[in-house]
Amino acid sequence: MSKRNERRGPPGPGHILGWAQNSARPAATTGERPLPPPNFPKHGPRNGPARAPRDGARDGPKDGPKDGQRIAKLLARAGIASRREIERMIEERRIAIGGVAVETPATLLTSLHGVTVDGVPVKAPAPARLFRYHKPAGLLTTERDPKGRPTIYDRLPKGLPRVMPVGRLDLNTEGLLLLTTDGELKRQLELPSSGVERTYRARAFGEISQERLEALIQGIEIDGIRYGPIDANLERRTGRNAWIEMRLTEGKNREVRRVLEHLGLQVSRLIRVAYGPFVLADLPGGAVDEVRQHDLVAFRKGLKGSPSPRFRGEGDHPKGGGGAPAPKPRSDGPPPPRSARSPSPSRGGSRK
Question: Is 316 a catalytic residue?
């Protein structure tokens, strides 16, 4: 370092990164001229807080706790409705702050104080709750139907809080439907990027082999729509009727039925038996029970950054949820899940 630089003292925190990185490399090696040392005033580096950026710029994320969160997100977490439904409610001017209608779902708030929906004040969000519901066939997974067909809300037991379905089950599909009071939890469970596995059992008529089902692990394209990997297993065959188990993480509209129909099968019954670690087990049709808060908290902690269940061994699949007992074999229904039985010899136990 030159005497001139020694007199000026070391660089300040605002310049040390760019100056040190360039001065650490000889100009002859890099072909570049090093940056000159920082030109501090004679009294040395300035002490005290740095100046605020101009033009209203702010450090940190724009959607952080200090700046607030979108009203649609806060209301969804409070269990008012899904984000999409809240956006419609805002368009209908049903949501207000201090008596003034909200005009955009991008409005930032730090709390829900003063927010009303249809004139009713919104309470602070309570801890998320999750319920298992055994949806019978013949019900729509929606709040209301323009054609007047029955929906799950027509049949849910009285006394439940306001709940939202996690994903959807078709009119003729039965089985496990998760319900939650928290819009953010609903979104986490639905996103394919979360890797939450859905397990279905289908009774289908037609000819099918385990080899053809194995090929679905590579994904399949049908009518221009690409479906991701599906872990399919031929559970049981009686004549030309077969029970097939399918595990997937995407859950596109009518995915299971379309894939099996593409393979030349006719689906006569479709049951969802598990969603992540939460299983249908022997929950009676039309019944609802709540997942224990301890199990829900543990599940949410491992939701992000955990490997997709699709690539775990069969012995690693979760076997319970919400304190539900293990499924029992029934002669008149679908076979028990693979997690409750020994691995299929034809599949070598697990798939990686």
Answer: no
